Structure prediction request, 775 residues.
Amino acid sequence: MSLFNLRPDQVVQEMLEFNQKLSEGLKTLAEVQEIDVGSTPKEQIYQEDKLVLYRYKPKVDKPNPIPVLIVYALVNRPYMMDLQSDRSLIKNLLEAGQDIYMIDWGYPNKVDRFLTLADYVNGYMHRCIKNICKRHGLNKINLLGVCQGGTLSLCYSALHPEQVKNLVTMVTPVDFKTPDNLLSLWVQKLNVDLLVDTLGNVPGELLNWTFLSMKPFRLTGQKYLDMVDNLGDIETAKNFLRMEKWIFDSPDQAGEAFRQFMKDFFQQNGLIEGKVILGEKRVELKNITMPVLNIYATEDHLVPPAASLALKKHIATQDYTEFAFRGGHIGIYVSQRAQKEIPSTIGRWLDARRS
Amino acid sequence: MTEPANASAVAHWLQIQQQYLEMWLSLAQQLLETTTPSTKTHQSPSPWSEVLELYWQTLGPSFTPEVRTIVRKFIDQGKNFSQFNNALLEAVQKTANSDQPAAWLNAWNANFNDVYNNFSKFLLEDGNSLNIWQSLHSNGWRMMMFNMPFLSSLNSTTLSGGMQENLEKLLSMPSLGYAREWQAKWQEGLKHWQAFQTAQQEYSEILNKISLRSIELLRKKSTELVEENETTPSSPKTMREIYDLWVECGEEAYAEFVCTEEYAQANANLINTLMACKLYEQQMTDSWLSLLNMPTRKELDTFSLRMQQMRRELKILQAKQSTNEIDILTCQINGLRAELETLKAAKANPNSVATTTTTKLAVIPVKAVPASKSATPPTPKKATKKSMMTLPDSSSNSISSTSATASMPTPPSTSDKQGK
Prediction:
């Protein structure tokens, strides 16, 4: 038996074919003029500083009368929820009969360097929710927090439980010090004060570099070679470009909010230990008494399942549901299985809790 | 001089690459409308990489900025894969000493260690673009981080050998005389730079360990595949499969190291010391700017901080005003409810004498309701009072309702109660 079944003539042939595919692929890429994202119709209903609140056009005649506000993370752009028409959790949530609003946090710049987490949660989020409540004549709405946005939603729900009818968290870190949390391990010894004092706003590229560093061989090299085989098809190429655009479209982080998130959440694990103070109030997870649906991804390398599952132990709701999605942190937004499973699960769960 | 037999496969491959390059050169000349075609054949040690570079130079500007960034990644990875294959081909060729398939198979099996030794030399080379750490470090943010005009003049060689010792002495010198503050500042900067260099060295050592471990794993997994191959034909049959195996080993080796306290500490040290250098640079820049009467970073930060505080206060005030408006509306609604009750009561008693009155809610008190008293809103008062404001278009803002005055006593309205 041979170690590798390779012959010199085959190797040359393989390389030749690879080069041809790459050349063809580059030709396909040249045909793409613009990387379009976000296909579902929406309207801007509120704006404040760099924040924009959107409402998506309902797709059913009588949607759930209690609207859902999607709160996305600060570290990436929210259009991941509506990347393209056949990979859109938002489109599918609308089809599942929900009335969807979403916050776009925008791109903070130097002027926003002193925005705190309290400004985000008690300020921006609160005003968005008030705005939606007013539009619908309601006292409370449904909240869907995604990733870091889930953590912010937990803080909001703990501080303003009277405004939240039902809470859905998706791939949301709660316990920031589970043993399998690589990001957490890396930041424990980081001098966050020095970092923020030096950089002011924390560059999005720095965060990107950190995320790529988690799997550098795959994410900086192999991924592109894998794609060469499929670049001949313009639609596949566009799908890839949309995903690439999202991955590298990382807003800078407002310095003070970043400082607090790193120190209070990652380093002190303050969310579950009751050490997070926003404004003048302590965030007590036990104040969360509304129904909670906690969705996590079993293969999530950024937010390990254990980090999300900790929620159950720290909240006081009598109506708690967990949903395990078989996939990773990105697959939960864009995979075909996610499109089938996630919106219908959320839709059914919310519909059962209308009254 | 005859070409050695063991170079023929590589030579064949290079010849094909060369043809590509010639084709592209010719195309580029046409595109650039060069009137005098090159008579000299361009010889390159890595023609395929040059083809891709040429492609980039010729067609790169035609991509939109968003797509261009991504195309560049494809080009880089295409070059890396080509380099990977060239290195592996050469490693096998050297060992096989022949271009015959049988000799190759023999080289894999019998001279496996030689093949790997040759190949691992390539993987560990500093200038090798497959060196994953270099590609990560060359990212834009790193370039930005390392751009430190005051300290960058001190390159790493400054700290090697005897210079290191001299630097230690220099740093331990007490600062004296008229310029002692400047001297102390420079010493502080050098200490930061020295700490950063040390941290960088420690970090690089870990990365080297990871690289070595990945090669060790590649060797181990390859051997295991041969053993498995006795029953299942799973050994790599293409260069791409070998590349994938190398990636798998790289990730595995990386995962072994980066989840340790040692790596976390080295990573944190690297960033912390780099930040200390950057902060020092900023402080020095601020000193110069201050001397030139220019705005400094510190001043701009203070400005931003104050602005944020003002934004916050403004929003609180706006929210209060909004609450005030809600109080006014609540007050109007209560008035309407009271009238509705009156109407209902009148309707319940058919013997009542109906009279028609019109209530105009065109009057809104200004700054009359404190937010805290929203639970017991004040009653709308008569429009004649000075503290009242009539809406500009009273007809459009007025609400008319028909009320019946019952012969039976009607329940007092909220306004009645409060009027008392």
In short: The beta strands of chain B are 363-365, 388-390. Chain B touches chain A through 94 residues (CB under 8 Å).
